[in-house]
Amino acid sequence: MEVFTHAAGQTAVLCALVACGFIARKKRLMNDDLDARLSSLVMTFCFPCLIVDSVLANQNIPGPEVILPLFGYSFAIYLVSSALAYGFFKIVYKGPRPSVHRIYAFTMAFGNMGFFGFPIVQALFGSDALLLAAIYNTPYSLFLFSVGLLFVANTNEASDGSSKKLDTKAFMKCFFSPVMIASYAAIVLALLHITDSGPVETAMSMLGSATVPMALLVTGSSLAKFPLKDMLNDGWAYLAAFMRLIGIPLVVFFVFGLIIPDKNLLAVVVILAATPAATAGVLMCVNNNGDLKTMTRCTFLTTALSLMTIPLMALLVM
After folding, report:
1. CB atoms within 10 A of CB 96
2. Quick one: pLDDT band at residue 160, thresholds 50, 70, 90?
3. Which of 69, 110, 214, 248 is the least buried, fewest Cβ under 10 Å from its Cβ?
């Protein structure tokens, strides 16, 4: 019960920050322009610093025998979860707009690992586990900004039938975004066992620590753009939320538990798999003609319900 309470407390703190962003938007302290600027700041500076600092500040970096298999586990998990999510909703979705099943597939496949997963893993397992999460994040980011982008692009079916094509150049640039470069750097630094306790690490630590509060404020502000009743009236979104918060973590626990020998590592991976829908989906919808309302609804539901489901997953693995 202590594990449940601890996990619930950490999740509640994160949800409280989302609520602050929601209130700030309602009080007109935040708007679309500020959200866009803060999002750009987080993704360009803060989040990359958080990833790199997880290596620089860690004096107990594991060897290649841990790092390389973890990289492989992450790649395999997101390959399976992406295919499973797309196939599942392609088969079961019977709604009026065929393309929207891809939004639900995105919700099922991709969790909010950086903004929710990192702080929860750190709180439950300690700072050493944050490095494992950063290593695990690299294949996740590759799938998120490639397969995930393909899932959400052009899901907003306009009344005039118009559709904006996916920008191929922008798609390819995702592999060289600051977050991705930081993830590549983290892998190299970890494999070379390079750490630092000087001014470089201190600066990165300060910038990285701003990632979670700023990102969750923006998430809350985005949720406030739509009436609350519109966030609660879609049965397909509840199914996507169930699959994201319960289905995928259980698949990871029972299936990949057969090939991941370290129980502590498995616990970290399951908690990361149990996070609510990735907030990057909202940004992708804005930039690539995605169904913003459905994506925001799924983000809202999974974030709210994770207050109960993440502690339950913590009970399962700890």
Report:
1. 6
2. very low
3. 69
